[in-house]
Write a structure and sequence with these properties.
The protein has 63 residues and is an alpha+beta fold. It is built from two helices and three strands, in the order βαβαβ. The mean pLDDT is 94.
Length: 63
């Protein structure tokens, strides 16, 4: 039996105006839409990499 995967809660705290198209696509791929929307993801290397790209726009909490 595998150990429970760590979860992260990602919340969009800044707007997307003035951001690069790649950053906008990354926010959408994370499942975030409007400011203060939140999603919970597994803390996989792929998800952590996406969060790193938009780190200045989001707030991350460990679950």
């Amino acid at each position: 039996m595998m150990a429970e995967a760590k979860k992260i809660k990602v919340t969009l705290v800044r707007g997307l105006s003035g951001t690069l198209p790649k950053q906008r696509r990354t926010v959408k791929a994370l499942g975030l839409g409007k400011i203060s929307s939140s999603v919970v993801h597994d803390a996989t290397p792929a998800n952590l990499g996406m969060v790193r790209v938009v780190a200045h726009l989001v707030k991350v909490e460990e679950m």
